[in-house]
Amino acid sequence: MQFNSLSDFIAMGDYGAYVWSSVAIVFGALAWIVVDSVMLKSKTLKAIKQEQERAEKIRQAKQQNSV
Q: Of the candidates 6, 9, 5, 29, which has an alpha carbon nearest to the alpha carbon of residue 20?
């Protein structure tokens, strides 16, 4: 399909509202996925760090008890 002007392209043959709202929904969902993934990664790395610190404290306590 060929469009004569930018306004014809935006109107999409009177289906512009459906087309552009669908595009907005898809990009919104993709943005949500990216943001959620970044937040989950941060949360997971923080939990791993806390677990490693806990394991180190336990190891040090066992060493002190055995001395």
A: 9
- 49/42 Cα distance (integer angstroms): 11
* Domain-wise residue ranges, the chain: 6-66
- Looking at residue 49, its pLDDT comes to 98
Q: Which pTM was predicted?
A: 0.68
Q: How far apart are CA 38 and CA 2, in angstroms?
A: 40
Give SS3 for 44. helix
> Tell me: the pLDDT tens digits for 34-64?
999 999 999 999 999 999 999 999 999 999 9
Say how far apart CA 14 and CA 5 lie, in whole Å: 14
Rounded-to-integer distance, Cα 34 and Cα 67, Å: 50
